[in-house]
Amino acid sequence: MYSDVKDYCSRYNVTLVVVSKTQPAEAIRRIYDLGQRIFGENRVQELAGKYEQLPKDIKWHLIGHLQKNKVKYIAPFVEMIHSVDSLELLMTIQKEALKNHRIIKVLLQYHIAQENTKYGLSEEEGNKLASFFQKENMSHVQICGVMGMATFTDDEAQIRREFQQLLSIFNHLKETVFYQDIYFKEISMGMSSDYKTAIEEGSTMVRVGSAVFSS
Ligand SMILES: *Cc1c(COP(=O)(O)O)cnc(C)c1O
Questions:
Q1: I want to staple 92 with a disulfide (CB 3.0 to 4.6 A). Which of 68, 72, 78, 82 is the partner?
Q2: Is 99 helix (H, G, I), strand (E, B) or coil?
Q3: What is the CB-side half-sphere exposure of residue 50 using CA atoms within 13 A?
Q4: Do residues 9 and 18 lie in contact, with contact meaning Cβ atoms separated by under 8 Å?
Q5: Ligand 1 site, residue 207, Cβ cutoff 6 A
Q6: Residue 119 confidence (pLDDT) above 90
């Protein structure tokens, strides 16, 4: 239920991204009317359609895999992209944000799960990308932190270890590359099944869908 998740997140000062994928506009509108303004979608087309239908003060986050050729459809309005997993994608976001006279916030998505089906950077790839970013003049993207998804498992110890791994990646980047960057502060981890664990392990931003929309 929305109010439970929201209260939990505010108690811990964690940003709640309500994941509204597959939900119709009316269902999103109901949560909006309760005060929620940050919503996350994982598909570009669905996101662009909902942007058209819903109030313009919603901050839309893209949380799913993003292809370079689709950045242009969301660049005019997207607030944050959680799924940056290559330099090419980052450069495309910079280009499209510039065209739209906007600054787009992004997170670097890391592969922390055991499954090989999930997208994301290795620690080494992320380090390279971050130092490249620091050298280039990427005026229209702001790297705000990291994102990751834990393995889909009942093994809480494993989930915890994966969240700890993401926290340690964040801390390393903060100390080595982004130490003067006040915007680099977000750790996007935790979904319906594991957001409380994620918050215990240092999450600053949780992405919760089913737990919000179920009654
Ligand atoms: C669907 C999705 C979520 C939310 O999942 P729930 O289990 O419904 O809370 C979070 N993050 C990503 C990347 C997703 O695709």
A1: 68
A2: helix
A3: 29
A4: no
A5: yes
A6: no
